[in-house]
Amino acid sequence: MGGIVIVGAGQAGASLAAKLRSLGYEGAVTMIGEEPVPPYQRPPLSKTYLLGETSLEQLYLRAPSYWERLGVALKLGAPVTAIDRAAKSVCIQGEHISYDQLALATGSRPRRLPRAIGGHLQGVYTIRTLADVDTMAAEFETGRRLLIVGGGYIGLEAAAVGAKLGLKITLIEMAPRILQRVAAPETSDYFRKVHAAHGVKILEGVWLERLTGEDRVSNAVLSDGSELTVDFVIVGVGITPETLLAQDAGLDIENGIRTDEFGRTSDPAIWAAGDCASFPHQGGHIRLENVGNAIDQAEIVAENMLGAQKVYGAKPWFWSDQYDVKLQITGLNAGYDRIVSRRSEGGAVSFWYYKGDTLLALDAMNDARAYMVGKRLIDAGISPDPAVIANVSIDLKSLLKA
What global pTM score does this model have? Predict the structure, then answer.
């Protein structure tokens, strides 16, 4: 068949396929997905979909008929088992599909608890796929006892859903504070108070020793010596890039599938985008796990597959919904040495990350204006005086006119 083959039917794969067509590419496009459903949004899984506020059809990135109209051949429920770089083909279910160019948008997979500490027991879940959430949905009944392992965004979002549905929730985080890997202490403090106000018990600096039960989990033993009776467990301890296929094919791996600044792997006919891709950034290689990166990087890769030679410059953004709080993040906070707080009327709060005099990133809670202004400033490389940011009498929009 030839043409372009995309392995992965998530946000990155779907964005890449759609962009190819919008750029006028008329060759064959085949998108292969391991899951048996068309491309869908993952962020609502641990939020509105789990709450029952978003339907399956609303999750779809596009109606299934869209891909047919676009001339994109979908092969779903069909994991790719091998890449034959010499023959330029991929193997699925014994079938070989040839390609002129191949794009890997294989995403990531959740870290699971080891079997040795009870990770295999029934009632222990991760949140990554539609099937994960569909399987655990029946567990969310008022009064049941939920243990959440991990105080990152996935764990906190699951806690918010559980609290709304009347569950008794304990969340444990082995680091000294929730969100330690991704956010400043100020943001951790903010969300700790929000969850406490909704009855979620958060234990920091505490880890899981083991889960116990016959076939199904019934108890959890913690590092502080306490033991909890639990009805089910959600594990949110991070994700790892899905690189096995690329590694088996001999591609360079560096905390993901290593690419150059254009998204090309160590094989000039193979590209990578999304959670699985490790790309150049400020003298090193980084990998980003968010929707914004999946879309932006995939679209640049689509252009470059058609010869554009555009360098991908990441402009990260991210969001999280917990209760009535909408958190919006822009930029990368690595290396910050100062936090500037801005608290406005009505409960809007934002934390601005500085390294010296340089604005790096922003966390905005129920403050869409701060997020919008901060994103534009960071994207433009503009760093306002921190004293101006902290002064709520100054309209942030005025900074865009300077």
Answer: 0.94
